[in-house]
Amino acid sequence: MKPLRIFIFFTVVLLLISLLALVVPEQGIGIGGDLRLSFLSFSDLSRNDSLLPGENVDRLLAGSLVTDDPESDQGMDLFQMGEPEEEPGEPQVIPVNADSLKQQIHRIALPAEGADLLHPFFSNLNRIGSGRTRHTRILHFGDSQIENNRMTALIRYRMQKHFGGTGTGLVQAIPLYSGSLSYSQEQSGDWLRYTFFGVRDSTITHKSYGIMGAFASVPTPLDGAWPSLHYSFNRSRRSGHVNRIRIFMHSYVDSASVALRINNSFSDTLRYLPDGFSVADHRHYEEIKDVTLFFDLPEGGRIYGISFESYGGLQMDNIAMRGGSGLIFTGMNRSTQKSMLDQLSPGLILLQYGGNVVPYMNAAYYQRAFKRQLQFFREVCPGIPVIVIGPSDMSIRENGVFVTYPGLEKIRDALKSAALESGFGFWDLYEAMGGYNSMASFVHADPPLASTDYVHFTGKGINLVAEMFYNALMLEFKEFNTKKSTR
Known about the structure:
Layout: H1 3-23, E1 29-30, E2 36-37, H2 42-45, H3 55-62, H4 98-101, H5 119-130, E3 135-142, H6 152-163, E4 169-171, E5 183-188, E6 192-195, E7 214-218, E8 228-233, E9 244-251, E10 256-262, E11 265-273, E12 276-283, E13 290-296, E14 301-309, E15 313-320, H7 334-344, E16 348-352, H8 363-380, E17 386-389, E18 395-398, E19 401-404, H9 408-421, E20 425-427, H10 429-432, H11 438-444, H12 459-485
Parallel strand pairs: 3-15, 3-16, 16-17, 17-20
Antiparallel strand pairs: 1-2, 4-14, 5-8, 6-7, 7-14, 8-13, 9-12, 9-14, 10-11, 10-13, 18-19
Helix pairs in contact: 6-12, 8-9
């Protein structure tokens, strides 16, 4: 096509768009639900989002010293600090500083007839401190807001610091997200990864993806060489201290084997693993600096997850599902999920979803669908408390200014209703960070607490909101122990 024709084509297109923009009302045209079609005016094109950090953001920053590093000790902790621990695995339960609790904390909403929802978990924490219980666990599910241990890492560090425990907990055999601060990884062999969330591979006809919603396909040994996964742990971090390795797997035939080379010496071979689901469990007598896992699965198999743990204390797993809405659990094979959950034996489950459905999903439908997921957890983990964490504020550009997404509060309300009606708890991240239009304030903070996509937090921002949730949880723990001591 000649340059003149190209110029004429684009000129005509621009004129048509300009005419359309003139006839479309300023408030836009509704196209279903809370979605609207609108056009920027010429004056809008020159406008800049000039929102500055609000009073709420200033207050949050003033009450915290968190950094980009979730394992930094600079942040405000609701525990009075005693002498430093000699060993990272030793629990140190210290009374909560009541004065710190007087600062503004956004409370966890509990069901009207379930004020004692978290008491079993808190009792476990107290028993760990007294040595009567060896361990407990928190499973943290969520979407891209928590991927690669974002938010989880700070909560895990604070909890493990006071109740004992080390390690990252569950990780994918073939990582979904790069950049772990706790370990580096290499692999040999033709490994493949499949997820139930996001774009699913149509060649996978079964639904056995495990509780992480993903699995790695184990290659068959080739010319006598077993496929392997190698991990080197960053022992300068608490999450890099590992004494126990558990592999949640599925072999297609009997007599599968997993060999472990630890700290440059072959340490153990777990033989005669059965056909179907099993857990290969190795406890090492000293800390693991690096490990290579060799897999002899004669006809291949699946790895649902690998857990890097300590002998005791608290473990916290980060189970992120990019693009997820939290509605997949009832669609996957229940038996495999329950088998994993029985082995993990969680004391608390966190479900952090909602952001991905804000732009397009009907709130009433989401509430019904999410309640079915909560019922799933009630059935497979009876008696285990669940806290639903709602979406953060998210912004969309309207008339040249970033404002809260239409419908976000309806999705938040849907999740809150689903949680409380199911007898579970709800923590409102949206209100905790300031409510309507607060994301713009996070973006414009110095240093920035959120990225310019007006959806995701920066490293410091995610640690700040993680600290807010941690503080809310510890406030409930403080009140639990206070009431117990006055009985």
